[in-house]
Amino acid sequence: MRLPHDQRSLTTLFAMRIGLATAAVCLAAATPAYAEIKQAESVMPPGNSGFVSGPCLAENQASGTYEACDPHLIDQIPLFTEFNYKSSLLGQKPGGPIVPKDGVEIYRDDFGVPSIYGTTETNTWWGMGYAVAQDRLFQIEAFRRATTGTLAELTGKGALEDDIIARRDFYTEAERMEMIDSLSGDLKDRWQAYADGVNAWIAEASADPGELPAEFVALGATPEPLEIHEMAAIGIYLARTTSSGDGDELANLEALQSVGRKAFDRVFPLRTPGQIGTVPRSDGLFPSRPGRTRKDERIAFRRSVRFAKHLPLPDPEADPAAEPSASMKRFFPDLSGSKMWAMRKGGNAWMFTGPQLGFIMPQRLVEVEIHSPSLDVRGVTAAGVPVIGIGHNQDVAWGLTSALADENDLYVEQLVGDEGYRFRGRTEAMECREETFNYQTPPADFLSLLGIPPEVPEAEAGSETRRLCRTMHGPVQARADGVAYARRYPTWKQEIGTIIGLDQVNRASSIDEVDAAAEDLTWNENLMAADDQGNIGFWNPGLLPLRPKRWDERLPFPGTGRAEWKRYLRLDELAQSINPKRGWLANWNNPPSFGATNGDGPAKERTIGPFHRGRYLQKVVKRLFLDASYDASKEIERISGTHAQQRMLATSRLKKARRRSKGDARVVLDTILAWDGDYHTTDDDGNVPAGVAAWDAFCAGAETVAMRRYPEEIGKLGHSAGGSHLQECATLEAFGLRTLGKRGYRRAAVEAMETLATPPDNDDPRKPQFGSKDPDAWRIERPTYPVGAEGAGSFPEPFPFFDRGTWTEVTELGT
Length: 815
Hints:
The chain has 815 residues and is an alpha+beta fold.
């Protein structure tokens, strides 16, 4: 059983770190070759800055081009589109520093990435806050408002539902301060120093119109000082939601009641045949629920169906905040995916990481380098968070990907009155409070900067008061006839522990120390690392519940005490692998292990088994591992970032279907097989091969054929294609790919031809229409990405689509 994080001390670990460092110095003195980060490069389009001044905005607003406002708004796009990188080695000191206060020096490289040098720990984190605020002050403002439930005061009533969710599902200011007080003195001092650095820049910028971000100018306002409880809100939100979102139990419940038990279980199974795991099977299965048998799973499903089939469903119109609205997603997007891989050979190791958060200005990550008396590290983090999330120090490089696991559960509380509920034969009282939410009508100029339509007349300034309640299981997220639905989070009031774990990762000098740090990570974010001794490792850490084995987690649990969690999984029960025999590891949000189940489906893509993009990535890594090198790691990114993964994974099935095909089916299948999956290479006219359009139409056709046997409502279990993976088949399309036989594939090809030959009359990219059966007519322009803006700067359009990280880093470590 893990100790609560407020009872743990970092003293022992820091002492161990110092001891190991001393030993390393002694060994190095007797060793002719030194271990090190040999190469490190990164790229983040459009650029590291997001600052546009008010005067510059006014001067350039008509043209919509702001490059002259800040040279680092879009300066990394050319690198990115050509698969080039900039140096991210530690210790760069280009030009002279700025010295905002005694003991702080800030250097900026040719791409505006700040390197902060502090004479003390406090000075260093003060400098980080100051430097990040220079580039991302409005982003800090947006983040703190979105996570403390005051966004509607900035962007209007459209954000009201998000504010309700932020305060309902998270914490009060007093609770956040309690969590901060649980940190060690050094970490707490770090948060205050960072806030002081931000506030120092706020004071300077507020006194100089040329330094105040244009967003504040458009609002006619100046930013308020940043408080550490607001920084905690940002960190807590990211620690809980980065790895996975809330579960889909209510959507699953609605689908089950609409389509029935058999169809539900067929389309959305607990286990998908042919799924791929990151941890090699030889290193362990690491089941999601240790000790549960397949018989237990069958019993659990029947039991949960009996309980769930008559449950009342909430009315979303009566309570719009039961589902997150689009406003929160503006600043904190849906999970899109991330990829990473590590290889080891001949005493060297290579690490590549690419978080995918959407192409937007400014990016949701900011790159920074830190040098304090005890720490040298470079990488990315979120504005307002005083730790490096992904990056490298002088000994270790590491990456993160969303685990997309089923971490939390929805409990059905049997109501007694409005605020009482039954638990183990007793009536318990909910913990409730009144919260007032204010909203403004911001200036139209400000709304247009963010791409928000002007508020309609009924959305004028005002306020609403809501009563927010919790049960012993967690916040009440929805109500229906006689029941309340409460969400239970394993990280409840422990999210801030992830900052402790990440700080230890930042300071790790070996894979063993990363392994130790993984125990303190409370979030379930996949972690991969490589060290300069040629070691690699993968962990699926965090606080994960040991659920009752005879209730099915795809559906809500009864809150009466019959389906309580037993404990948290131990670290040795969580998926992990250090130095696998095959020499490599790769993850693209695929299940961490072969024993993992799909859970309630916070990411339905986990149900597509052998057609998951992670399987394609592993095939590419396995092939290029034969010539493992720095250049090979870059080539893995080029291939995986420009090829339709599922098209490549379907080659064998497509060939089998083609053998007896004829007519329209033969034409479509021939066209798809003639295409190698590359959507980046174009002809002289800028068009991609006809196979791109044919494949899109075929995926849609596979869904049509596969879904004919099911009620229309089965679509509630799917998701549309998009996000970071525009060339990926949607969930139900991939269901068709994995379940149809040769005849089904031929029928899908016929459906595709019908679509392709239809005269164009819609804008659905999943159903391309050309009015011709001739593949030569199916050539389209190279796919582009729908970029966005969250401030005054705008991302240049059109931007070519790549299935790549919105920041990527490649490192080589060894002797």
